[in-house]
């Protein structure tokens, strides 16, 4: 049995929230568990990684003793150890999802026992506020993820200001879906918001709150057409990269360069803005992504290297003088318009049963994230294997790549062209095989002369 090396460290946050951080696979994998207590940081023993003995804690109006909190911490540590032991016995690799599922299932009973307020006393708003406080720490959320949940909850309260868990039934879910339609939301957005709502409700269920029957099984019966993946084709990208902007609009050149660097490397805006000289090692980028904490190694192609060389004059802490996300997106639209990126994009979507179709020019909707899509689609179109592309982007599975593969029409065009040129290549190969050494030298000499003429 191979034993997985891991560390599980209890610690206290500035807010007083007690957490347990688990790391394994040489610190590449990390999960945080919220123990469920917030205490006075002065009553925490950093050396023992436990609450100081013989202390009491006022938590939501109730007195909790140190022994009770420390028991919960030790229970978590025991369940974490059990999870790794079970995984080792079955010769498996511990994933974040498996560890969370195992520990949360084991601690569910304990959480029920220490639940300070039951469903009848806690309002839905209080439960959601607790969720917003604890869940981001459990899953290392970004501010954007937190905002999406807050937006969904605001919409739920707009639909019914008096909504509670006991009144949130499957019938209410249907009415909530109709509320979205009446308020002119497109079906794609409605489906996404219900996924976010059910994610919150599943967390509430795991933490001892009662969810009404049928609510978690509810799915809006709405027609949804996948959104068109927007990106620059290879010729468009190279045209944009070499386009000369007016001298008095230097900010457009900067915006274009930032976009193209992302398109040549697959970086997100957050990673571009944080990119430091130390991240460039032996002709490749070595970064830990801001969004997913993935460690990536991305070889720099000559186009990306040229942009780095172009900004060698910049002496800031980062590699590039990156504008804010909003300013960069605004400048990109102007730059793309001047560069003539006016290919039409057609987006088809439904609102309820009504079909809608929006047509716009590419420059009207271009944004930073189109650069990452451009990298994927152009790489696939150039024949780079999907596995290599995924190693650059950090995509974890083939399914997440499918939307890009399906729209990379240039890939199919280039591959099918092999039917046309295979016969000519085969004729050349057969002729070369029959040549003597002297004949091959003459052919090479002829080819080199032609290349010099072209250059």
From TrEMBL:
A Pfam family matched in the record: Phage_integrase
Signal peptide range: none
InterPro entries listed in its UniProt record: DNA_brk_join_enz (IPR011010), Integrase-like_cat_sf (IPR013762), Integrase_catalytic (IPR002104), Integrase_recombinase_N (IPR010998), SAM-like_dom (IPR025269), Tyrosine_recombinase_XerCD (IPR050090)
Gene Ontology BP terms: DNA integration; DNA recombination
Residue ranges annotated for the Phage integrase SAM-like domain, each copy included: 123-209
Domain of life: Bacteria
Domain Tyr recombinase: 254-410
GO molecular function, one term: DNA binding
Keywords assigned by UniProt, alphabetized: DNA recombination, DNA-binding
The keyword DNA damage appears for this protein: no
Family: Belongs to the 'phage' integrase family.
Name under which the protein is recorded: Phage integrase SAM-like domain-containing protein
Organism of origin: Marseilla massiliensis
